[in-house]
Amino acid sequence: MTTKIYKPLILAFFLLINLLVYPQSANETFEISGKVMDDELEVPLEYATVSIVNTNNPQDVTGGVTNGKGIFKINVSPGTYNIVVEFISYESKKFNNRTISSDLNLGTIELGLSSDNLDEVIVTAETTQVSIQLDKKVYNIGKDLTTAGGTVSDALSNVPSVNVDIDGAISLRGNENVRILINGKPSAMAGFGDTNVLNQLPADAIERVEVITSPSARYDAEGTAGILNIILRQKETLGFNGSLTLNGGTPANAGVSANVNYRTEKFNLFNTTSFRYFDAPGGGYFDTKYFENSGVQFDRIYEDRDIDRVNRNFNTNLGMEYFLTEQSSITGTIFYRTGEDEDLTTNKTTNYLGDEEALGTTRREKEKENDNSWQFALNYINNFNDEGHKLTADFQFETDKETKITNINEEIDFNNIADEDFEYPLFGELINTTEDQKEYLIQADYVLPIGESSQFEAGYRGNFENKFTDYELFQENVETGDLELNTQLTNVFDYTENVHALYSQYGSKFGMFSFLLGLRLENTNLKGDIDSELTDAELEEAFGFPIETNFDDDYLGLFPTVNLTFELGEKENITLGYNRRINRPRSWFINPFPSRSSNNNVFQGNPNLKPAYSNAFDIGYLKRWKTLTLTSSVYYQHETDSFERIEESVEGSSVIRTLPVNLAENKRTGAELGVLYNPTDWLRLNTSVNFFQFKTEGDFNEKSYDAESTSWFARFSSKVSLPAKIDWQTNAFYRGAAEGVQGDREGYLSLDLALSKDIFNDNATISVNVRDVLDSRKRESLTTTNTYERFTEFQWRKGQNFNISLIYRFNQQKHEQRKSREGDDMDGEGFEG
């Protein structure tokens, strides 16, 4: 065990001796206080060491350590002292020859990670963005040049372990069952679980992303893959400060974002507001070849699809923290998002008989969508003392209303079918969809330190969510030309999800060993009511399997968590994590009424879906050298009743239906390796590789969907600091091929480039970036069933994306990126045993 580990005990011993030799009653004393913070992530540094040495008598040493909020308070006799603030792997800060004749408050002391160049007391190093903690990894993405002017989804796509696919779906270690949180809570900002909303939020609103692969009991048990917690910017600097960002690019892309903060001793007022307009052209093709036993009229159907999107989004988040006392505060925030989207999808279909083109059609779908979301949140915190004893309470209400109007028409381009009796009906459609969603959250958390190295926590969280979907389908009467209501498919779906949770956890540290044990109890209530003109028997016949039109299901589960850390040295440790988690089906996975992307492709929910459960194990290893950081882990996950999307053709029809079902189990084994290399001040290299194997077993409709495959993905990022304050960044990502339960998916490589330069005395930065330089972010897959074979290629956004961005900071100091410390937070919020 090193001297640094013993230093707090040695200082405490000297402090005790001083108190015995120089009784406080006999001498006047004054208080030296302050707060120690990480200068980049702006989080408190707990157990930072404060040494106070009398300049006239170097043997007169006293001091102490910071608490969970980074605060220290030390009493000394009048005199002149040298004060040193230290933390493992960080640069020290010295305050020499301070004469103490009254109380001294040193204010906020920001420490940066140590560097080989010790010519100055404080050295800022341009290095890594990652902080490794007991139950998570924290990535500071504020300086990622390739995402300037981009969205939250763009930013997440550069975070190790995370993958954002062509459709915007987010996965963690290759598993899409990931929980998205905003500032530690479910939020309307994340679209009630609809990750497409993250394409509307600006990347520069993010301060950091927490990748939590082994969540403690404090967190929701939702998400079998783990949790992504997005922390938004909220400065705490005294006075008025902020930043303004302007960006534009091609395809048509323009936006403005402002982030301002005003803080006094009594309150902190903050706001982030942004507007974004963008056009994201996408598309692809579907080439389906039907086998002889399919019963389909055509042998092959080729669909060429173009999508033209025009989106206008406005977001604002206004909040104020009011300090009731020195130990307590209340924070209120209001978030509002509105969006107006206009999409035109053109689907050109060619139907083949043999090798000959028989029939060609063009289907145009115009969709106009308006979305309005509100979120109101209150947070109360009371710190009973400076040792971390505290109580927090939260209330959150969110409401979202989305209206969608879809007009569909189709026309015949050519008809080479000689059969005079052949008819291909053409009729227009009008679809009106209204979705109303409301969610309440009530939460309370209590933290009780026990001694100097242990902590107990307990809390309650209640989530109450309701989604009401009203779907109306009008179809053209081919004889009269009038639009008439299709009563068979028009429906109302009322879905409710209520979750009550209680948790407790206990953590402690013994020398080099830390542990955090937790248990969470969750009761889930899923209720659904489907109102339509169809009877249960007709629904069963239409959908091909029995369904429940009215269900009320309760699930009670215990979710234990274990997180262990063993420190092999100051810069080396081993971690072990275990957790049990749940994956609840979302409303669009349950609604049985189909949504169509073309005449031949529909998605249909399954109201029979049940929650999936998983048990996961994770072993990690971390080692730091002077210029190199190595992170690695091996993980295993066993999921029961896992969700899987199944494709099947509708009997006697060319329509292909995609349906989510519960399969028996999914086993996933994998390994991660990350390397952060900073050989010089002007070069930073970052790479990570994730390799995993999955095995799926299960049957549906008396057919086996067993599958076994391996896949991998890798990232590489380099940042070079050039002369004239110019930075050059390169990001590359490769996703390997994989086999699924019904086919194969091809791999792809993508490349992003960016340049930036500081201007106006470092108060502003201008950057230029190009995303998807190779125009290669495409999903290519081959699906094979017993009736057809289909090859698909799809791009959510076609072509290269060019963007130029200007950010201007006022009353802010530009922070450089640097190595983050090896953290040991046991609950992710400041406890370090």
TrEMBL record:
Region Disordered, residue ranges: 814-833
Example of a GO MF term: siderophore uptake transmembrane transporter activity
GO cellular component entries: cell outer membrane
Transmembrane parts of this sequence: none
Annotated membrane topology: Multi-pass membrane protein
Pfam families in alphabetical order: CarbopepD_reg_2 (PF13715), OMP_b-brl_3 (PF14905), Plug (PF07715)
Stretches with biased composition (Basic and acidic residues): 814-823
Coiled coil: none
Source taxon at top rank: Bacteria
Annotated ranges, domain Outer membrane protein beta-barrel: 383-808
Keywords: Cell outer membrane, Membrane, Receptor, Signal, Transmembrane, Transmembrane beta strand, Transport
GO BP, sorted A to Z: siderophore transmembrane transport
Biased composition (Acidic residues): 824-833
Similarity comment text for this entry: Belongs to the TonB-dependent receptor family.
The protein's name: Outer membrane receptor proteins, mostly Fe transport
